[in-house]
Structure formats: structure tokens, C-alpha cells
User: Which sequence fits this backbone?
């Protein structure tokens, strides 16, 4: 007997009622048919399942949309390498190996100890093993001292070579400057080189100039060579003569008060220290002027002066 009420059964066709009341359906299928009979507008159960599955699929599709492909990251621009920093000029490290101040005393002491050991052995105070052990220790100390002496000699030789190289650079720069500024070529004019050497040696031998840098001696000797040969430096304007320059630098003394400077001296040559004492008391431009005047007026005296330097 059907579980549906009479009104619901009245809405079914004879085939549907027969199907509902038939025992060929399972309880689940019968329940679905009864639901359809009670609600004609309800969709078929199978459609609900399909719709629910479709809705679930659609909702899941909407809930999880396919991610858009991210745009490719732009390739980084090639890094511009900065120019390499200039390397500083290498500074040669000075090799320094000083020798002990008492080197000779240490060598002598080792020799004395060795002689004492041999004496002790001869007189039977020590045996041969003791002698040999002590002599070996002394030989090792002596070897260390000899190595120190060798290193010191090498250091001194290296320092001398470095000084010579530096001096050669200074001389080259000086010769180039004399040729460019004063038109005097020391490389080609050997006679003027000889004059320069004499003036340089004279200046170095004068204790009044002790402690001057080497460049000062070179510049002063060069000035004297120019004065000796009457060469006007290119760096000095030739329009004004030496006499005019001296007159321009001389202060007016006509109206100056009288001092002991105007008192006439006593008769006689006074205290003269040699023939060229007046030149030895001069320096700078005054000495240059005196040498130039001597070259023009008394070449023989100039030759004696140069020979004595």
C-alpha cells in the first residue's frame, strides 16, 4: 500500500502509481518517486545530483581561477664596472741590516774562548768530547756574526747604488734645465764641465756653506760658470745690464747722515787674507759679478783663482 496521500496519488498517471506501488524499486528509488509525486515542480533527483556536481564544479572553478601567468621579470641591466683605481707608485723598501756595534769585540772573544778550550784540552782539564762540543757552539756563534756582516755589507752596497741612481737623476734634470733655460749644454761643452767641477768643489770645501743641499751647490756653481763666460741666462731679461741693475738696487746715500763708513781708512793694505780674500767674502750675485769682471780685466788672476779652488 502506498505511503502517499490520496491527493498526491490523484495527480499521478496510472503508470506512475503502478510504478510507485510496484515492488520492483528499491526503497531509495521509491522515496525519490514519492517526492516527485508530492512536489511536481521539484526537479528530478538525478538532475539535482548533476546540478549540484555542476554547481560545485562551477563554484570551485570560480573560487579558484586559473592563475594568470606572471610577466617575465626584466633582465637586469649589465653592471657598469668602475674604472680601476690608479695604483700608487711602488716605494722600494730599504734593506737595512746594521752590524752590531761590538762586532769586532765579539769575534775576538770567540777566538779567545777557542784558544782557551784547546789549552784546557792539552793540559787535561777537559776531555775531547767537552772540547769539541764547546768548539762547535763557538763556531755556530761565529757563523751567525759572519752572516750579519755579509747582510750589512749587502745593505750598504744597495744603499750606495740607490743613492747613485738618485744623484744621476738629479744631474740629468740639472743638465736639461741648464740647456733649456740658459742655453749651456754641459754634455757637449766639456771645458765648461771642468769649470763647473772646480766651482762645485770650491763651494763644497767652504765651511761657510756646510749643510747646504746638493742642489744649492749645483745651482751656485752653474751661476759662476755663466758669469765666468759672460753668458746671460735666458731666464733673466737682457734689456737691463748688470751695472744698471746694481745702480737701481743701490739706495740713495747723498742725504744720509755721515757715519764711520765715510771715514778714510788708514794707509797700507790692511789685514788681507790671501790674494782672493775679497772674493771669498762674496756670495751670490756679488761673487758672480766679481768673477765676470775678473774674466774681462785680469784673465791671469782668474786662472790663479780657478787653480787654487
Assistant:
Amino acid at each position: 500500500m502506498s505511503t502517499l496521500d490520496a491527493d498526491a496519488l490523484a495527480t499521478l498517471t496510472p503508470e506512475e502509481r503502478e510504478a510507485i506501488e510496484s515492488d520492483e524499486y528499491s526503497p531509495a528509488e521509491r522515496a525519490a518517486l514519492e517526492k516527485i509525486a508530492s512536489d511536481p515542480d521539484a526537479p528530478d533527483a538525478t538532475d539535482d545530483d548533476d546540478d549540484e556536481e555542476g554547481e560545485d564544479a562551477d563554484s570551485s572553478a570560480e573560487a579558484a581561477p586559473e592563475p594568470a601567468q606572471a610577466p617575465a621579470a626584466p633582465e637586469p641591466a649589465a653592471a657598469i664596472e668602475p674604472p680601476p683605481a690608479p695604483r700608487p707608485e711602488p716605494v722600494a723598501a730599504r734593506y737595512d741590516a746594521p752590524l752590531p756595534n761590538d762586532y769586532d769585540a765579539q769575534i775576538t772573544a770567540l777566538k779567545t774562548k777557542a784558544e782557551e778550550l784547546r789549552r784546557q784540552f792539552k793540559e787535561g782539564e777537559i776531555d775531547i768530547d767537552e772540547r769539541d762540543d764547546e768548539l762547535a757552539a763557538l763556531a755556530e756563534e761565529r757563523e751567525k756574526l759572519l752572516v750579519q756582516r755579509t747582510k750589512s755589507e749587502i745593505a750598504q752596497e744597495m744603499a750606495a747604488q740607490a743613492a747613485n741612481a738618485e744623484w744621476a737623476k738629479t744631474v740629468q734634470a740639472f743638465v736639461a734645465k741648464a740647456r733649456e733655460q740658459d742655453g749651456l749644454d754641459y754634455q757637449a761643452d766639456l771645458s765648461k764641465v771642468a769649470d763647473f767641477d772646480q766651482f762645485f768643489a770650491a763651494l763644497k770645501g767652504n765651511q761657510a756653506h756646510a749643510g747646504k743641499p746638493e742642489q744649492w751647490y749645483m745651482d751656485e756653481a752653474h751661476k759662476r760658470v755663466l758669469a765666468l763666460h759672460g753668458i746671460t741666462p735666458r731666464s733673466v731679461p737682457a734689456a737691463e745690464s748688470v751695472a744698471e741693475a746694481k745702480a737701481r738696487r743701490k739706495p740713495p746715500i747723498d742725504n744720509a747722515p755721515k757715519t764711520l763708513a765715510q771715514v778714510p781708512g788708514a794707509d797700507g793694505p790692511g789685514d788681507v787674507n790671501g790674494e782672493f780674500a775679497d772674493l771669498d767674502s762674496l756670495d751670490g750675485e756679488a761673487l758672480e759679478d766679481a768673477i765676470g769682471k775678473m774674466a774681462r780685466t785680469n784673465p791671469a788672476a782668474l786662472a790663479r783663482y780657478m787653480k787654487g779652488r
Remarks:
- The two ends are 159 Å apart (CA to CA).
- Residues 59-65, 258-263, 265-273 have pLDDT under 50 and may be disordered.
- The chain has three domains: 6-50, 103-174, 184-253+273-308.
- The chain is about 60% helix and 0% strand.
